[in-house]
Amino acid sequence: MQDLILHKASTRGNANHGWLDSHHTFSFGSYHNPERMHFGALRVLNDDIVKGGMGFSKHPHDNMEIISIPLRGALKHNDTTGRNEIIKTGDVQIMSAGTGISHSEVNASKTEDVNFLQLWIIPKKRNIAPRYEQKTFDVSGCENKFQTVVSPNENSDSLWINQDAWLSFGNIKKDFTAYYNINNKTNGIYVFMIEGDVMINSQMLGRRDGIGVKDLAKLEIKADSDAELLVIEVPVQI
């Protein structure tokens, strides 16, 4: 039997600090829900809006795979590996915190909001050397199909992650049915809706809803409107 977890957007945790409006799918910061600690190796899925000129000052991490995905606007990134980068809409960034890394993320605009997703994935190997990578992806690569942007496969078109995990974008047009085939049959799939409405396993999902499914080889996704979504495939046993 499939193990299904539904997270409606309205049930997420929320922390609004004025300069930052953050919605948490899983327990984070002051939001603690013992029934929402993680989905397998997926530990954090935050939907952050940061005001112009504001951001997160330099802070440390270790032994976590950290992925940032701007949905609107751009982020200015600085870290202790010496990287100073701008991460813009269409880019995906990944850091392996490993033995330890400190970084800051600040809105690159002084006037416009930036909206980005930040994911934390529990690593496969601990205490690796800290690393940083980012890449720009062509949105045409995910029209009515899934474009893998993060994977454990080195020398591929995707960003490498220190875990048996895959992240894929789908841009599914209204009335089209797309199928996601699992890469590792022991993994689970978590779908996060960025925009639009889709039907997944008889469940209707709208903007910012999420659904986790285990014990499934293929996922059928029917779009009721033009829809953008992120498919996160991760080990369920950690």
CATH topology of the largest domain: Jelly Rolls
What share of residues are in beta strands?
A: over 45%
CATH architecture of the largest domain: Sandwich
Average pLDDT taken over every residue: 96
> Count of helices?
0
SSE string? EEEEEEEEEEEEEEEEEEEEEE
Distance between the termini: 21 Å
Write down the CATH class of the largest domain.
Mainly Beta
> CATH superfamily name of the largest domain?
Jelly Rolls
What do you see in this structure?
The protein has two domains: 13-136, Jelly Rolls (Sandwich), CATH 2.60.120.10; 139-235, Jelly Rolls. It contains no helices and 22 strands. 0% of the residues lie in helices and 55% in strands. The strands form four sheets. A seven-stranded mixed beta sheet has the order 1-20-17-22-15-13-14, with no helix packed on it. It has a seven-stranded antiparallel beta sheet with strand order 2-3-4-11-6-9-12, with no helix packed on it. A four-stranded antiparallel beta sheet has the order 5-10-7-8, with no helix packed on it.
